[in-house]
Amino acid sequence: MRIVVTRRIPEAALVELRAAGKVWMPEEDRALEPGELRKAVAGADAIVSMLHDRIDASVAEAAGPGLRVVANVAVGYDNIDVPALTGRGVLVTNTPGVLTDATADLAFGLLLALTRRIAEGDRLLRARQPWSFHLGFMLGTGLQAKTLGIVGPGQIGQAMAKRAEAFGMHVVYSGRSDPKEELLRQADVVSLHCPLTAETRHLIDAAALKLMKPSAILINTTRGPVVDESALADALLAREIAGAALDVFEREPAVEPRLLDLDNVVLTPHLGSATVETRTQMALLAAENITAVLAGKEPPNPVHR
Ligand code: GLV
Ligand code: GLV
Fold first, then answer.
1. Does residue 114 fall inside a structural domain?
2. Residues 83 and 108 grouped into a single domain
3. Residue nearest to atom 5 of ligand 1 (CA)
């Protein structure tokens, strides 16, 4: 069995994969270019893919008829053309569950960093600026009794709600089929936890931002294209909303340049699941999905039934 791993993964998962077949992994730790990816997968029975790999019909074709499974090391799988693969009899799996807490922790951390001006305060000190404690110095806003609006009440959205409730926040939800307008009007904090699909692309556009309170903030830890990043920069500059904290970007790894100059914006480089524990569990789960399929068994996490 030929197993292609598109980018370095934790050793524990490689051990599992090596027991199931011959593993190929690129030497350099960087995203493969589309051409390199197609070349690498030739003759593969299984592919372990990353969220930055576009896996479509051309990749399946390049792999050839032996391809049986693509295991994405992520809960999101918007990078995979699932119908194109299933149409060829290829199973697609993801890694739900194991990154729920890590991602909710980061989303809540971003919320605190923004409302309590943690990143901004850190920048101030590093700039060697003079400062002194006084009662009006660098005031943020409290979370207690504020309303958190969760867009996408899945596992991560619910974990975010649990954290918010522990901080004394009131939580409202909006799911796939609910209208978003009421939530956007009510919420002091809007946190995005829906997957990226055709329906959620630019869910937060200029019109949605206009519905939000001028005192409200936006948190995005799901996928960049759920937000129209240029419209967000416009809204922040026009003070239509009070701030934003983003872990994901519309054109990753690029960031809308106007956001980089704003003090009421906190930015992190797609770190939602980035803990040693979680990344190891994600890679192990991907390996488990691969070994199940190669052994002729049902994988634990197919994205389609
Ligand atoms: C990370 O962004 C994931 O989808 O797991
Ligand atoms: C703040 O530092 C306080 O002691 O209240």
1. yes
2. no
3. 74
